[in-house]
Design the sequence.
């Protein structure tokens, strides 16, 4: 009996089981369902994804313990002043997520608004000479570095599965996208949103993460049970719906680079983090933890529109561009 592929939805975002892809019993059905979700809303919940629950729970435990350290300890691994070197610790209010703004005056105006009230720690692969990791000194928080790197590579295995599924969904060779994601030029980010006043969020006096889209190919998101993530309706800009946590699911969304790469066939959808609607207490939001894993094509790789995404009636909208050139220009604007 064929396994069920779509097992539900949350506010229009499908919940898809990867089981039939992983065990090869119905790869194409899973691939088609994933691509369809990316084409319509740009987001999908994935269950049976192969990343063990105990490993995810363990990383959340490390994250909570890290952010509970004194500020002076966390600042022993400081994020560099440059926005293009996304590694190490960033304290609350340091980063302001912005959208596609290339006018310097407009960018300064946006940056002057309410900062994002969150703190983060960012990790990449150890062998990345262009963007080295920044760790706490040896002995300060034993085991943290090893846990982060172990989780980075566990997420990498899931990424490869998703790239193979997307390739099949696009009716390309199964390893087509994998071949241009070999480095991996990825970023694991631990996020902590401290408790803030709901009225300050509603008045835009503070922000958790403002409305934005992601830069790269795909983002895998693990979130706690607090909620607060909201996804914009691509067909009705300005209308946001909660992407409520689903037990055991990873939320995956397409990034801007994949949208450009697919000649806009795939949607990179605007999303934000606000106050969860049903868990606020005494006018305060609960604190929130999440772990996104941002996946990018090899920075050295120049890509053109994917085969099958353009035609005489639907010509290419974009010039070839390198992943690194694109990502770095976007990263620099956020810091």
Sequence:
């Amino acid at each position: 009996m064929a396994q069920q592929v779509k097992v539900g939805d949350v506010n229009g975002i499908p919940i898809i089981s990867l089981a039939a892809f992983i065990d090869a019993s119905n790869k194409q059905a899973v691939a088609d369902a994933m691509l369809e979700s990316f084409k319509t809303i740009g987001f999908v919940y994935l269950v049976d994804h192969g990343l063990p629950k105990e490993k995810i729970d363990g990383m959340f435990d490390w994250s909570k313990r890290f952010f509970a350290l004194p500020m002076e300890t966390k600042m022993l691994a400081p994020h560099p002043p440059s926005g293009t070197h996304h590694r190490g610790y960033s304290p609350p209010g340091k980063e302001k997520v912005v959208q596609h703004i290339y006018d310097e005056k407009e960018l300064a105006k946006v940056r002057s608004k309410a900062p994002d009230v969150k703190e983060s720690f960012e990790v990449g692969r150890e062998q990345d000479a262009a963007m080295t990791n920044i760790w706490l000194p040896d002995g300060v928080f034993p085991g943290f570095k090893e846990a982060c790197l172990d989780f980075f590579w566990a997420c990498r295995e899931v990424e490869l599965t998703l790239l193979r599924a997307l390739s099949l969904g696009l009716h390309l060779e199964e390893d087509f996208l994998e071949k241009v994601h070999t480095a991996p030029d990825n970023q694991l980010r631990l996020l902590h949103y401290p408790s803030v006043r709901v009225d300050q969020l509603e008045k835009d006096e503070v922000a958790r993460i403002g409305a934005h889209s992601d830069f790269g190919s795909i983002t895998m998101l693990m979130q706690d049970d607090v909620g607060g993530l909201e996804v914009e309706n691509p067909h009705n800009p300005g209308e946001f719906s909660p992407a409520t946590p689903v037990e055991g699911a990873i939320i995956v969304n397409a990034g801007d680079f994949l949208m450009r790469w697919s000649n806009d066939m795939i949607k990179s959808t605007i999303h934000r983090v606000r106050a969860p609607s049903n868990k606020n207490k005494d006018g305060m939001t609960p604190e929130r933890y999440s772990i996104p894993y941002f996946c990018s094509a090899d920075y050295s790789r120049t890509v053109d529109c994917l085969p099958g995404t353009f035609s005489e009636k639907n010509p290419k909208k974009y010039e070839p561009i390198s992943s690194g050139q694109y990502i770095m220009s976007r990263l620099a604007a956020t810091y």
